[in-house]
Structure prediction request, 74 residues.
Amino acid sequence: MWKRKKKDNSRPAYDKTGKRPVIRASICTGERVAGFCEEGSGHMEELMLIRNEKDLEEFMALYEVKKEEIETIW
Prediction:
């Protein structure tokens, strides 16, 4: 009767067709954000803040991306 809902920590499925994995890095602050960039328009969907190498590994595992595929945008 008074049960609480459990939080769903799983990430939703993400459609990567027509998109490439990128990291947008700031030259001034050093902040890095990982996401996917559309091939035609260049629009980037930011998905995850990358603070350290562990966050990058988590991004690669969640979205099944290899490190060689990721492009860095300044």
